[in-house]
Amino acid sequence: MSIDTAARSWGGLDLVVANAAIELPQEDARVDRLALDAWNRIVTTNLNGQFLTCKHGARHLLASGGGAIVCLGSNCGSLGMALASPRTARPKAASSP
Question: What pLDDT was estimated at residue 52?
Fold first, then answer.
C-alpha cells in the first residue's frame, strides 16, 4: 500500500514507520566477493526506501498538523556481523548523525 493510499483510507496520518529492508541470502556477502549489482540492489532498497518513506510520509504529517516518524533499523550497524557487509552498512548509514 502506498503512503498516499494509506492516508486516503485512514483520513490522514499521525505516524509513519520506515522499516523497509531486504537481504539477498543467495549472494555471497563477503566484501571481496560481493557483486556490485547485489550491493546496489540492497542499498537502493534499504536506504532509498527509508528516505522515500520519510519524505512522502512527512508531507501527510505536515498537512495534518504534525505527527511522528519512526525509522527502524537493526543493531548490525553498531555491532557488525562478519561476512555481512551489506546488512551492516544500511543501519549504520541510516543512523549516522
Answer: 93
- What would be the CATH architecture of the domain defined by 3-15+28-95? 3-Layer(aba) Sandwich (3.40)
Residues of the chain with pLDDT under 50: 96
Amino acid at 16: V
Which pTM value belongs to this model?
Answer: 0.72
Q: Which long-range contacts (CB under 8 A, 24 or more apart) does 48-54 make?
A: 49/18, 49/20, 49/21, 50/18, 50/20, 50/94, 53/3, 53/16, 53/17, 53/18, 53/20, 54/16, 54/18
What are the domain boundaries of the chain?
3-15+28-95
pLDDT tens, position by position, 68-88: 999 987 766 566 566 555 655
